[in-house]
Amino acid sequence: MGDRRCRPLGFLIGLPFAVLALLVSLIGAVIWLIGSALNCICPCCTVCSWVANMAMRLIQLPISVVQWFIDTIPC
Fold this sequence. Notes:
Structural class: mainly alpha
Number of strands: 0
Shape: elongated
Strand content: under 5%
Distance between the termini: 14 Å
Low-confidence stretches: none
Radius of gyration: 16 Å
Order of helices and strands: HHH
Helix content: over 70%
């Protein structure tokens, strides 16, 4: 984990992909809001909670993309 600071090239290469992932995460945020509202209205609907959990993974996608590039591309 301490080695991540040494890899600016991985960060710069991953940045355009992180911007695309940011757009996908905005869609995930909208899906999460809708899924959370539906889950509050009908708690017995387990599909809504599954959709909300998947949307949370989409929201975290930009961070995952940048971390993957930093870990994959050497100094």
